[in-house]
């Protein structure tokens, strides 16, 4: 999830862990704990594109990290914050790290919660920025923050924020099931034989969903809004995996393919090849749109393959917002 959401969650968890004893300091340190795991983005900048992708939401989003660094940060804080014990500060930091990772499990990218095991959990039920999750949660947190330390109202408001936000996460799983059933019904009705299907919400909402559909030689992408009145239309995207034949033994290319979990297409512009990660959709929901949100260019540099992410622009975001708003309202 985005940084603001993780700060709010961390602060609320910090309040539960130690708010009665240290007041707003518990929220402050909880907010810090909610931020620290995402520093892996900056660590990734020290490496090449593929390694940065592997690092993101890896070790820092694991139970192992929460245990080790929860204790380390708890000990460091206890050296100068004497209102609570080392164990209590460690518990706060551990819960902040762990809940950060658990929330990210619900997104499309997911987390390696059980690192070092190479298993990435991704429920794909909520977009990384969702105002319906964050804003009510933040309002309850602010209301709690303004009440005296240890007061019943402070505890009540903080608990309500956690209950409402957690309940919304559960609701998104139910909504995802509804979208999945709509997609599978449409595929059956249109007699599209498929191998696998992957559903996820589009940006900033849980009203409009997209599906990647795996068939023998192509992927189909469709959109479904709960306000739709017409059948779902699926758009075909050839896999073109054969274009990577000359790269079949290249380690970087194979690592990138592994990151996509097999959901990728290959496109060719002039003589340059691009690997497109389907999991995060396109930069528009306009029918037949071709530019994917995450696309990687393969470059030949001194006889070796260099992989670069295709940058996104402000115009891309503006186009996406406009198209989303129109499509959410139904087909």
TrEMBL record:
Claim: Transmembrane is one of the keywords in the record: yes
Membrane-spanning intervals of the chain: 59-80, 92-115, 121-146, 158-183
Any Pfam family hit: YdjM
Signal peptide positions (record): none
Alphabetized InterPro entries for the sequence: Transcription_regulator, YdjM-like
Alphabetical UniProt keywords: Membrane, Transmembrane, Transmembrane helix
PANTHER family: HYPOTHETICAL MEMBRANE SPANNING PROTEIN, MEMBRANE-BOUND METAL-DEPENDENT HYDROLASE
Protein name, per record: Membrane-bound metal-dependent hydrolase
């Amino acid at each position: 999830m985005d940084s603001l959401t993780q700060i709010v969650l961390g602060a609320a968890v910090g309040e539960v862990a130690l708010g009665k004893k240290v007041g707003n300091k518990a929220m402050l340190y909880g907010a810090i704990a909610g931020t620290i795991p995402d520093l892996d983005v900056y660590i990734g900048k020290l490496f090449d594109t593929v390694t940065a992708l592997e690092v993101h939401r890896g070790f820092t989003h694991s139970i192992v990290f929460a245990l080790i660094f929860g204790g380390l940060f708890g000990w460091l804080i206890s050296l100068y914050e004497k209102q609570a014990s080392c164990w209590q500060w460690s518990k706060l930091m551990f819960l902040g790290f762990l809940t950060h990772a658990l929330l990210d499990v619900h997104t499309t990218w997911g987390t390696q919660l059980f690192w070092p095991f190479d298993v990435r959990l991704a429920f794909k039920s909520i977009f990384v920025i969702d105002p319906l999750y964050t804003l009510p949660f933040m309002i309850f947190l602010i209301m709690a923050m303004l009440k005296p330390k240890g007061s019943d109202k402070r505890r009540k408001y903080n608990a309500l924020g956690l209950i409402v936000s957690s309940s919304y996460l559960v609701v998104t799983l139910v909504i995802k099931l509804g979208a999945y059933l709509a997609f599978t019904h449409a595929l059956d009705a249109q007699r599209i034989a498929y191998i696998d299907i992957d559903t996820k919400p589009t940006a900033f909402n849980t009203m409009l969903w997209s599906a990647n559909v795996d068939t023998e030689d192509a992927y189909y992408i469709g959109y479904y809004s709960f306000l739709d009145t017409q059948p779902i239309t699926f758009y075909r995207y050839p896999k073109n995996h054969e274009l990577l034949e000359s790269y079949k033994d290249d380690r970087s290319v194979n690592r990138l393919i592994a990151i996509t979990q097999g959901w990728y297409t290959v496109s060719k512009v002039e003589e340059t090849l691009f690997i497109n990660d389907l999991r995060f959709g396109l930069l528009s929901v306009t029918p037949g749109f071709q530019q994917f949100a995450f696309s990687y260019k393969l470059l030949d540099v001194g006889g070796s393959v260099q992989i670069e992410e295709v940058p996104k622009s402000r115009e891309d975001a503006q186009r996406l917002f406009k198209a989303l708003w129109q499509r959410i309202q139904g087909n």
